[in-house]
Amino acid sequence: MSVVPIDELAPGDEVLIRANEVVPVDGTLTSATGEFDESSLTGESLPVELVRGEEVLSGVVNGSGSVTLIATRAAKDSQYQLIAALVEEAAASKAPMVRLADRFAVPFTLISLLIAGLAWWGSLVIRCASPKSWWLPRLAR
C-alpha cells in the first residue's frame, strides 16, 4: 500500500479511504459497509450508509471508519470534477437578462442624467421668470 497522487489513480485501482477523508474518485465499495456524508453533492444532511457493491461518488466525506473501494473512473472523469466544471462554466457565462442589462446600462444612465439636468434647469428658468423670484431679497409687506 502506498500514497499516490490523485492523477495517477486509474479505474480498477483499490483505494483506501481513511476516516473523515474526502473520497478522491468514483468507485465501488469493497468494504462490508461504509458511512458517507454526501451533503457536498446532494445536500442531504444525514450520513448515508452504503454496503459492499454500491457506488461511492467522489467528493463525499467518509464517516468514522476506514473503507476500501475499487475506482471506476479516473479522477478527471469523476462526478465531483464534472460538477466543478459545470460550476466554472456557469460562472464564466452570463445570463441573457444580465447581458441585456449590461448593454443598456450606460445609455440609460446618461439619458436619466440628461433628463434630470433638464428638469433642474427648467425649474430654475420658471423660478427666475416669476415676479417673486426666489433669489431676490424679500421686501417688507
Gist?
By secondary structure, this protein is α+β, with helices and mostly antiparallel strands. The chain has helices at 39-42, 79-92, 96-129; strands at residues 14-17, 27-29, 33-37, 48-51, 55-56, 61-62, 67-71.
- Give the overall silhouette: rod-shaped
Provide a count of the helices: 3
Helical residue percent? 25-40%
> Radius of gyration, Cα only, in angstroms?
33 Å
The count of β-strands is 7
Q: How much β-strand is present in the residues?
A: 15-25%
Regarding quaternary structure, what we see is single chain
Question: What is the string of SSEs from the N terminus onward?
Answer: EEEHEEEEHH
Question: Which regions have little confidence, pLDDT < 50, spanning 5+ residues?
Answer: none
| Strand line-up of the largest beta sheet | 1-7-2-5
Description:
This protein is an alpha+beta fold. The protein has a four-stranded antiparallel sheet, with no helix packed on it. It has a three-stranded antiparallel sheet with strand order 4-3-6, with no helix packed on it. The longest helix is centred in the C-terminal third of the chain and has 34 residues. It is rod-shaped, with a radius of gyration of 33 Å. The mean pLDDT is 88.
Features:
single chain, 141 residues, alpha+beta, four-stranded antiparallel β-sheet, 37% helix, rod-shaped
Topology:
Layout: E1 14-17, E2 27-29, E3 33-37, H1 39-42, E4 48-51, E5 55-56, E6 61-62, E7 67-71, H2 79-92, H3 96-129
Antiparallel strand pairs: 1-7, 2-5, 2-7, 3-4, 3-6
